Amino acid sequence: MARRFPGGTLVIATHNPGKLGEFTDLLAPFGAQIVSAAALRLAVPDETGTSFAANAELKARAAAAAAGHPALADDSGLVVPALDGRPGIHSARWAGKAGDFSAAMARIQRELGAATTDRDDRDDRDDRDDRSAWFACALALAWPDGHCEIFEGRVDGTLVWPPRGENGFGYDPMFAANGHGETFGEMAPAAKHGISHRADAFAKLTAACFED
After folding, report:
1. Active-site positions?
2. For residue range 80-100, what is the model confidence (pLDDT) as tens digits?
């Protein structure tokens, strides 16, 4: 059985204001006293994991140990099959130290264009025009004693160009979830929270660790 969050202070192990805002909204019904790693001036650990789950876990464990409170960390990113799964766990790195996701989105579009003109058709399948993608999310809830719970979520969709919308963050303006005409960048936050990869993982987390 998963360990229950005991209430009180919960550290959100992020320095990203957009992610902090989403977590604050999602956690509002549960009465946790939210504080960010940025507000506590916690160091950002090197993300040396080879999966979303591994990176989320190392961030959560580091924040919990440093702060002395339970910590919730996320590792998420955009997976593009036509680019062999890139940017994947390196999604944030594609934006560089300045966090320039406009440049990162332009890189994806550019590399998709290169894939479209690449005549090396592996496995005799013509998937060079494939613009499918998914957002993946792993959430890790860690305690100062080292215990950790991990939950994963996903939302599938299509990449659009040019990017649309000023809401959200990261790659949201170029991603439209399956069955939806708006990009995540165009959706109101409440609408995005209802279908996102983070919401999918969060529903599993709260069912196991927060809800009665």
Report:
1. 75
2. 999 999 999 999 999 998 889
Instruction: Return the pLDDT at 83.
Output: 96
pTM of the model: 0.86
In this structure, what DSSP letter does residue 105 have? Answer: H
Contact 138, 201 (CB under 8 A): yes
Q: With the CA atoms of 175, 79, 77 and 205 taken in that order, what torsion angle do they form, in degrees rounded to the nearest 10?
A: 100
Going by C-beta distance under 8 Å and a sequence separation of 6 or more, which residues neighbour residue 74?
13, 14, 19, 23, 56, 137, 138, 139, 140, 198, 201
Question: Which residues 6+ apart lie within 8 Å of 5 measured at CB?
Answer: 30, 32, 70, 141, 209, 210
What's the fold here for domain 9-209? Maf protein (3.90.950)
Listed in sequence order, the residues at least 6 apart from 41 whose beta carbon sits closer than 8 Å to its beta carbon are none
d(CA 38, CA 21) in angstroms, rounded, equals 13
DSSP secondary structure letters along 22-37: HHHHHHGGGT-EEEET
